[in-house]
Each structure stands twice: as structure tokens, then as C-alpha cells.
Amino acid sequence: MAKSLQARKSELSDQEMQLKILSGGAFETGELPTFKAQLSKHKIQTLRPKTFSILQLNIGYMCNQVCSHCHVDAGPDRKEMMTRKTMEECLNVMKEFTIETVDLTGGAPEMHPDFEWFVEQIRLTGVSEIIVRSNLTIILANKKYHQLPGFFAKHSVHVISSLPFYKKNKTDSQRGKGVFDTSITAIKMLNKVGYGQANSNLKLDLVYNPSGAFLPSDQVALERDFKKALKTDFDIDFNQLFTITNLPISRFLDYLIASENYEEYMQSLVDAFNPTAAEDVMCTNTLSVSWEGKIFDCDFNQMLGLKSAVKNPHISQLNQNELMQRELQLSQHCYGCTAGAGSSCQGSIA
Amino acid sequence: MDKQYYTPKDLKNFSNITEWNKELGDKFFDYYNSVFKEGHLSAREKSLIALAVSHVVHCPYCIDAYTKDSLQRGIEKEEMMEAVHVGAAIKSGAVLVHGVQMMNRHDQLSM
Ligand code: SF4
Ligand code: SF4
């Protein structure tokens, strides 16, 4: 199995190095406009939060997979995990603030030893929606996880899962050998307990992200293709397909550079800049919390170490007013959120 | 000498053709963009047709652009190659059908 950038001691596991690359090259020479310059060109002074309705918690970087595009640089060799104390601080925030959605991510969040306890506690806070970003294969990775579909159903968890393509070759090339077949089995298990079924409230959404140095196209057309192919070939169902653009950070940045696609990819992102999508990027309604309890404007900024611009960027120190006034921390990776129809953890924006 | 007739970077400057004739340039791009919208044919089908035609007209810019466009639309490489063969078959058919003209001319001139 491949290793994380951190385990490979790659220079790209260094956040500073990634930020340096993102500010250098064509952005330094002025050949391409920086993200902030592009915003000004479109008369957008800067981006500010509009609401704080989604709390995205990254509870640990450990994962059973080592996908080649992973922006978290997750893998079995990553040991970072949220402590129960930090989880309790997150629960306090859910009780104090009017948060609609708690979005659990990782790594594979299910691998956290307190995962089930945490989901049960979150339910008790009364938030209306709990999302778990499940990579699907975890459900079959070990016997102890086989009951996850039942657990998700019991707590009405909204499951969002990656499936880069409706065919084996592209899925396996991005996520590892055998991932496609296992994912299909896992979706069948979720379907069986009611996920993605017409007469059920249990939602299973799939995430498509391109297997290479190109941008996703129209979400509606791809959803149509995915639904048709998955129904015909495997008799499986899901609710919506979200198309997500790969952001040029971490392992995807490593791939772009190694395959000599970095410059062309950045050019494509800049060319596809959509000011309408920029107004509604994810960081305008979401706050991301790391395993250490530090707060970031999004999960991507978390991986780049760009903390939210508040006095004490920690979940135990949240101040609603200060939070809503803060300036969002932007760099060139943000072009990934504003390309074409835009991209967020909930798919297209515009 | 590293100057070439075809430079990949020229593709991104395609829209500059409007600078020397705005009216016709704008008309062309309007028309072009309308052609590729979802219609009776899906945008996906149109992309495959464009890919095949790109090969037939030997346009390296179009091949670059529509290979990428096909990837973006989730078109698989087997579909792309089949489309290229459709283009090649028509092109070679168009060459070979002239063989009938050759045969006719041959017979007409021969005793
Ligand atoms: S993309 Fe998801 S499933 Fe793949 S290694 Fe990263 S966290 Fe794990
Ligand atoms: S990368 Fe993060 S900070 Fe940048 S626009 Fe996207 S959500 Fe906002």
C-alpha cells in the first residue's frame, strides 16, 4: 500500500512548502492573477462569513485507504486523533450555537475509537443533521465495522461517500486496487437498511471527483450517468451526486507536480473562475475544526495550517461576533472552490 | 530553432481573434457556444462528435481541448477511441469511394 506524504518524508508534507508553491510560479511573475487579485477584478473586496450553520469536524487523519488525490494526506500511518476532551468542547459549541449541521470527516472518522459515542452525543444536542463522510470500504475493512450501516440508520446519519466513477478502472486508479468492488458491496449494505431508497428519509449521497488533472463537468449530467450505470450494472441506488473539484494541495498537488500538470491545472482553475460561485464558497457558512480543536475556515485551510483569523482560534474559545467579522484566509488553492459551477463539500455552488 | 507552427499556449489566446474583427469574432463564439449546449443531442454526445471531427480535420488544438472535455464529462477512453475510429472510417471511406471514379475513368479510357 502507498504511504502518506508524511511517512514518505516528502517536502510537500510541509504546509509552508505548499503555500510557497501556491504563491510562486505564474502567480509570482504576474502571469496569472492571485486569488485576491481575481476577486478585486470582479469587484469583490474580500470574502466574509455569512452564517455559521455547518460545523465540520475532522476527528483524525487515520484512514484505511491512501487515495492518490487525498487532500488530508490520510492513511493507516497517520495517528492524529481528536481527544474526548476536545469532542466535549465541540459538543458544548453545538449546544450553545445554532448549528444546523455537524459534518464528521477524517481520514475515516469511523476508525476513531469514540466515533459511535460521539455520534450519539451529537444527536442529543438536537442539531438537525449529522453528516458522516464515509469512504465505504471501511464498512468491510474489519468485522467490527460491518454493523455501521445499521448504526448510521439508527441515528439518521446522512452518509456522503466518495465514488470517483461508476466503473472499476478509474475508481481503483485513484483510490486503490479493489476499492470499487468493495464500495459497491458497501452501497448494497446501505441500500438494504434503507439508504438511498425512494420511500426512505435515509440519505446516501455520492461524491465524484476527477481522476486526473481536469475539472469536473456538469453535476446534473454526471448524476444522470452515474444513476443509470449503477442501477443497470449493480442495481444500487443513491440520492444525489456531488461533483467536487480537486484542490491543488497535499497529495493532489504532489501528483500535479510529478505529472507535470501543475501549471496547466492552475491555468484551468483561473480560466474557470466564476464570481457567482465565489460569493457562496463553503467557508462563508462552515467552520472546520481539527483533531486538536483548532479552528479553520475550511478543511483545506486546516491542511495548509491557515488558522481562522480570530484571537484564539480554538473550539473552546469561540466568540460568535468575532467569528462573523473575521476575514477569511485565502490563497491560490481557493480557485478550486470557484471554478465553473463552483465546488464545496456539498458539490456545485452556482 | 524552437519556433513551431503549433504552440499549445495559442489555444488559450483563441478568443483574441475578436481583437481584429470584433463583430465576426463575437458571432463565431456565440454560434460555437450555442452549438455545444445540451439540445436534442446531449453535451456528452456532442463532445464525442467534436473529438472525432478534431482528428479528421487534424487540429491539435481541438484534440487537446476535446480529450480534456471528454474526460471532464466522464467519457471513457474506449469510447474516445471508438469515436476516433468512426472519424477514420468516414475519412478512409471518403478516400476509397473515389476508387469508383478511378475505375470508371480507367474503363472509359481503356480498350
Ligand atoms: S480521500 Fe478519504 S478515503 Fe481516501 S485516503 Fe483520504 S480520507 Fe481516506
Ligand atoms: S479553499 Fe477554503 S478558504 Fe478557500 S474559498 Fe475554498 S472554502 Fe474558502
Structural summary, described in words:
The complex is a heterodimer of chains A (350) and B (111). With 350 residues, chain A is α/β, with parallel strands linked by helices. Chain A has a single domain (2-337), classed as TIM Barrel, CATH 3.20.20. Chain A contains 15 helices and eight strands. Chain A has helices spanning 15-23, 25-29, 35-41, 84-96, 115-125, 138-141, 148-154, 168-175, 179-192, 219-234, 250-258, 262-271, 275-279, 299-304, 320-325, and strands at 54-58, 101-105, 129-134, 158-162, 204-208, 241-243, 286-289, 295-296. In chain A, strands 6-5-4-3-2-1-7-8 form an eight-stranded mixed β-sheet. In chain A, strand 5 (204-208), helix 10 (219-234) and strand 6 form a beta-alpha-beta unit. In chain A, helix 4 runs parallel beside helix 5 (115-125). Chain A is globular. By secondary structure, chain B is mainly α. Chain B folds into two domains: 8-37, no CATH class; 42-110, AhpD-like, CATH 1.20.1290.10. Chain B is 67% helix and 0% strand. Chain B contains four helices and no strands. The mean pLDDT of chain B is 94. Classes of the chains: A alpha/beta (350), B mainly alpha (111). Chain A binds chain B through residues 165, 167, 170, 208, 210, 212, 214-218, 221-222, 225, 267, 271, and chain B through 12, 38, 42-44, 68-69, 71-74, 76. The complex binds iron/sulfur cluster (2 copies). The site of one iron/sulfur cluster has 12 residues of chain A, from loops.
